[in-house]
Amino acid sequence: MLQRDYILRLIREFMAALERMLEKKEVAGQREEIRRLYEQYVGPYAFFHTATIDEVMQSAEQFAPEQRLGRLEMLAELYYAEADMVSKPVADLLLDKSFHLFSYVSQHDRTFSFDRMRKMQTIKRRRKTDNNNEENA
How many structural domains comprise the chain? Predict the structure, then answer.
């Protein structure tokens, strides 16, 4: 029970920090803040920014089982937010990783999240629009 309370409090703290970061106007400040959030909540930015989804999933083993889904969801949120700060093709890679992690969490978590489902739909829509634009070019 204490572990569950801890991870829930950690997720709330993370989401508040992420929201504060997104409110910043300057992109340089957002990028620095997102690096700090990676380091503080999930691990080294240099690793997670460049890792494949398989490497990310393997690295998730470092987290205690009761924290794993929460940490993976935090990472999905970071990828999702960072995708709006970078250009293609990096944004597409981040969105793909974010979608994969949101999907994994949805399949394994006992709690349904409308916000998670909305973000997954947004990613699908963005990727479909991107693919249609590439085909028409």
Answer: 1
Quick: pLDDT tens for 29-68: 889 999 999 999 999 999 999 999 999 999 999 999 999 9
- Please state, in angstroms and rounded to a whole number, the distance separating the CA atoms of residues 1 and 6: 9
Query: Position 128: which residue type?
Result: K
- SS3 of the chain: helix, strand, coil, percent, to 5: 85, 0, 15
Most distant CA pair in the chain, distance: 54
The torsion defined by the Cα of 124, 40, 49 and 22, in degrees rounded to 10, comes to 50
What's this model's pTM, rounded to 2 decimal places?
0.89
Cα separation, 90 vs 50, in Å, equals 10
Please state, in angstroms and rounded to a whole number, the distance separating the CA atoms of residues 109 and 120: 15
Side chain identity at residue 83, one-letter code: A
